[in-house]
Amino acid sequence: MLIDYLPIAIYLAVLVAFAVALIVLSHILVPRNAPRLRRWDEPFECGLRSEGLAPGRYPVKYYLVAIMFVIFDLEAVFFYPWAVSLQAFKDSQLGWLWFLEMLVFIVILLVGYVYIVAKGVFGWSESD
Amino acid sequence: MGVSFAVGNVLSLLPVGVIVLAALLLVLLDVLWAGRANWRLAAFGGVAVVVAGIAQLVYFPRLPSQVLGGALRFDGFAAIVALTVLAVLLLTLIVSPAHMARMGLRGGEYYALLFLSASGMMLLPAARELVSIIICIELLSLPLYVLAGYNRSLAFSREAGFKYFLLGAFASAFMIYGAAFIWGTTGTLWLGGIAESLPSAENRALLLLGLGLLLVGFAFKTALAPFHAWVPDVYEGSPSPVTGFMAAGVKVAVFAVFLRVLMEGLMPLAEFWRLGMYVLAIITMCLGNLLALHQMSLKRLLAYSSITHAGYLVLGLIAANAEAVSAVLFYLIAYSAAVVGSLALVAAWATRRTDDVYISDLRGMAERQPLAALALTFFMLSLIGFPITAGFIGKVLLFYAAYKAGYIALLIIAIINTMVSVYYYLRVVQAMYFLPREQPEEEGAEGAVKAAAPVSAVAWPYLTVALISVITIIVLGLVPRSLLAWLSMCSF
User: What is the pTM of this model?
Assistant: First the structure.
């Protein structure tokens, strides 16, 4: 009974070992000649000297694109159960209903896509 | 492997379909007109609402019809709630463009979000199964979180959006957890199935835990004390037309489904939830009234009054008899008319800095704008439950339902609370009719700043909405039979 959970235990052990290994390795391999910070209260920027001020504004385009990817990816996941259960619906003469359901879903998705394109979410440079 | 699934009469879905389609078209029209077509978007939305309303009247379900495997059942009850939501949406659309222009708000997403929220409100009373109910509540709430924070330049509005989002998510978590426990103990999510298998359910403790969590979730959504703390801040911070839409629409839809869940699904557990609701009703009525007594802001006053009215409505839920169904609906419709009308006037008088009206701003309003002052007086009287207004009939019906169910002590507490509420509603009327306008030169520096924000004349969209609401209130107050004849069709 408990032996059934052995793969999960191995997986967990590998996971923890990997995380620990990364920390240890980065500690061993870190270059020791990183520039010294001028003052103790400055933020540590991965061994680089900090430049500029933190409250400055910078474009976060990649963030929006990443969000869009997550949204559309999750919505695409919805297609799989639909496709898998299509045959069952066809067998019971409900193929058209099932087709229409997906059509409604895709139209709503399309409206969202047109909206974000028109709002310039995918425009990378400022001029777009 | 086959699927047995009764599609049912899809035409019952037509009104909701029109609203969802309109929401999608509004999104497209917004980008087409580059977000600078407030009035045109509102006009398009208005036409869509009228079409949906006509569709709802033409396909008024005289006999209940099941749709999509029974997950939705459209009957007279659902149809009347849907018509009320459509009316509230139409009134909100009339005031919105003018208010957005005055507040300097941009972006047509506002209208699409209103429509999406309304579609959730219309589907909610028809839902017959816990998952559908929870999805409809999310559909109703998610657009409202955005709308509450729509006036991004105001810190109050940002706070409202964030607070509503956090507490709304919290409430949903309670509700879903409760539904999961009920599913775990009864093995079904259908309201009818739950009612059947409740008496033979084995694990009583888990079942009651589920019931309690579900009640807490609903209490959050319907703003019952002690789960009411978000209401004043959210109502105050949201753009005024949104507050009206929220106060009226959410209350109508969520109370309708609450009644349905209790009466159809959980009747075998009535002794437990009646006890819980009894306590909630008393706390809600008393706390709402006491906190409303000293509010200076009209929007906060209306928020606490909304909490109190939720407390009165719980009387109908506890009674849970045939009278209660039509009484709760009548009360909700009367309340919606009064609250949408008064928030239209708040929107008309609001300053860009606060999007709110203080009672001191109303001083001498009767001389400056007699018509609007008279309208606000009618709304306050209806909220009190003064005779010849719809609020009176609503209270009589509701209290009669509670009396018939034998809750005399609760009834007495409700009546005492009604009398207490007269004080703060009439304070608004007193400020408008009996107090002189503040003179800036007498008040010193602070008074001068206050009076510097001029109370502008009420523009026609606000006045139209106010007059429609006043007419509704008086007609329902004088000839309640006109609505009651319809409501009698929707017992379930």
Answer: 0.87
